[in-house]
Structures are given as structure tokens and as C-alpha cells.
């Protein structure tokens, strides 16, 4: 059983640095880097009991799973009493794992507000989920809070500047305040070591399955105290029909987080991704304002328009009869993108690589909107999606010359040719008719 002790919290204007010590048996789970959070607000008047919350939220899962003890000098009372409920969400999600670590606090401090402010905030990345939540709660004028160090690396200033410019544009268009937090929270612990130690047991990755929801939400505590937020929204990233069993951001966990009389709400959980895209498009049409989405996993700071996440989001938009260029996919081509998307997924299926469970639902939506989509310029390059089996490479209708060109070796080329010839002989063509 190890120990983690928070020794000091050093603040200067908007910067917080945590000084902590760890027992020898836990050192393998930490990188040796400092844990620093920078707010674009002066947080020197925020009590240490609130400033402790982000540190606690980031190390608690390690404490629980290693059956260790966390020592804290002072902590917000409301957050302390929320911890058992948060842990219960993890326990139910991971019933075969022990969450037996404990937290020892020398002093609990009451930081609740005396009056209800009605103010809200939203963790905002510019992706589909958080944009949908922004659209549905726009009348509350929530503060948008972006966290640099989550999807964009703490050290990547160039990528962050591109994204932040887009976020600023959105905030300005809809008259919302935009705050940002820069944090080394993905650098100070060793996610690789944690993943290797616990992924087999948890059947999930460390960041996705354990860390990100609680880690992100607890970063907001100092701002919640300063701005007297009544509620903080975190957008759902899954929906019940395709949701993996284990995801760190889940209503059973997120909705139990609270601090300084501010509650958290996991928003949009019943909605699937296609429904969220439709909601965003409807909002953009009604407001007559462009929406700049950022979804890319491959290129930090912009949408590459060539990765699975970009293709999937463009397909979501196309399924609703809209042009993805309008939503920040500048390389979209009415003539070529649908074909490039098909070829990309064909190779995934050929290599037996699983793609997102969202694709069949996109196909279903295309069929529902078929009559409308047939009138659009990109239909000819996109209609293959109507009859495809995303696990079967031969259902994509990829031309023989393309298959032969990209088949691996002579044996692969012969296999492709024989399969195509067999289909031809059986008169079972795979092209999709109008």
C-alpha cells in the first residue's frame, strides 16, 4: 500500500503548481514532471481547499486501484462528501476490481455560496458532443471552458493557437465568454505505465476508461468558486445503444461530482451522434451562423479530412444533406471525398480493423434521406454507403482495378481477381443502383 502526500500548493496570478511526494512503490506510475495548471484568471484568492480539488481528482483513481492512501491538508467539504458516490460509479463499472484506497484530510472547509447565481459553464472542445451541448443550452449563456493539455498536448502551442482561434470565433458569434485552462495533467503521471498495469484488469485504457471525466471536471473547481457557477456541463461522448461498458465519463460518475455548491451534469447522453449532428445543423440554420467543428485525432489544431474521425463526421453531415465545408472541413470534395471515404473503410475492413459502431447508423440515416440526397452533387460518390457491410471489404463496391492495384503481393491480386470473377459468373454484381 503506497502513499501520496500533497505538501504544498504554490500560486502566482493564474498559475498553480502542486508539490507532492509519492512512496517508492508508486513512482513507476508518475513521469517525474511537475503538475502545473494555468488559468486565464487570477486565482490567488481561491482557497487551498478548492485548489486541492484538481490534484485530488487526478490522483484518486491511482490511489483506489493501488489501495494507497492520499494525504491532503485541506479540501472542499462538498467535494470530499461527493467522493464516495464518485467511487461507487467506478465500482459498479468495474465490479471485478478493488477500489480500496483512501483519502485522509486534515481539515474540511465549507466553500458553499450563500445565494443561487444561475450561472453555468460548459467544458468545450469544439467537437460534436460539446458543440451540441452548447447549442441546446445557449439560452443560459454558459461560460465556455477549454482545456489545453487534454486533446492538444501541453507543449503544442501552434496546434492550440489554431484551435483557440476557432473557439474564440464561436464564442464571439454567440456572445459567450470563453475561458481556458492549460494543464500538464496528462504529463505528470505516466499513462503508458498505468495502461500496461491495469488495462487487462479493467478491459479499458487508462485515459478513456478511468481518468478523463473526473480529471477534466475537477479542473473547473477554482473557476466555479470564482464565478459562482451553479452547474457545469460535460457533454456525453457515448450513447446507450453503442456505449462501451467502461468509459471514464459516464452519468454514474460525472453526475456525482460537485464542489463549492456547484453540481455537474452529464449532458446529451440519450442522443446518438447522428442526432447531435442534426441538432447542430438545425441550430446553425436557425441562427444563420457557421459552426466550426474540430474532431480530428491525427492533426492537432485542424481537421485533416482524411482520418476515420474526420470521415465519420463528414459522413454524418452528408447524411443530413449538408456540405461539410460549412462546418470546418475545408478539404471536402463533392466529387472525391465519398470515394476516398469508401476506399479508406475498405482497407480497414480488408485488414480486419474495427471501425466505429456509428457507421451503420449513418448508413441508416442516408437511406432515410435518400430521396433528398439523390439531388445533391456528392450523391454519386456517397451512395455506396446504402448497402455496405462495414465488416466485409467486398461489399464496398470498390472497382477491380483499384483492388488489384492495392492488393498485397501476387497472391493477394489473384485472390481479388478470383473473388471478382466468381461474383461475375454468379451474376451477383456489387454495384449500387440508383
UniProtKB/TrEMBL annotation:
Domain of life, per lineage: Bacteria
Protein name per Swiss-Prot or TrEMBL: 7-cyano-7-deazaguanine synthase
Originating species: Faecalicatena fissicatena
